[in-house]
Design a protein that fits this description.
By secondary structure, the chain is α+β, with helices and mostly antiparallel strands. It contains six helices and three strands, in the order ββααααβαα. Strands 2-1-3 form a three-stranded mixed β-sheet. The two termini are 29 Å apart.
Length: 141
């Protein structure tokens, strides 16, 4: 696996994850890099049960029949920051590889329709991956 993602919809109602195995190769090797940057295209999404506790924590904020003292703006910011921080911690622990192997890994935290949630691309990825995304964005403009 070389692609890992956590994210949500713009209403912060869900937590979704995805993974993929696509190899990056050299910039320009791929005709279409959209698969790299769009986690909805990635083939692996098993294990959602492990996000059940987190989902149950955000659920009351979206239902009128459950008590919730958290304002939406606080929930929204906190949810995405928690996703980013979780991936940062896993990265520090070596979960996504180290050295040259880590250079081939893409980590994304995305809000549906927003590619760079809270500056997560720069926070989670190597400079090689950040440069790769910047190149792809320019090509798409």
């Amino acid at each position: 696996m070389r692609l890992f993602s956590l994210g949500s919809d713009d209403g912060a109602m869900t937590i979704v994850h995805a993974a993929g195995h696509l190899a990056l190769g050299a910039p320009g090797d791929m005709d279409d890099e959209s698969e790299v940057w769009c986690s909805a295209e990635w083939p692996y999404a098993e294990g959602g049960e492990f996000l059940d506790i987190a989902y149950r924590m955000i659920l009351p904020c979206h239902r009128s029949d459950l008590p919730c003292d958290v304002e939406f703006d606080v929930l929204y910011a906190g949810l995405f920051e928690a996703c980013i921080a979780a991936m940062e911690q896993l990265d520090r622990e070596g979960f996504f590889g180290t050295g040259d192997a880590r250079e081939e890994v893409v980590l994304l935290c995305q809000i549906e329709g927003n590619e760079d949630m809270e500056g997560s691309i720069g926070r989670l990825n190597t400079s090689r991956v950040v440069g790769r995304l910047e190149r792809w964005i320019k090509l798409c403009e």
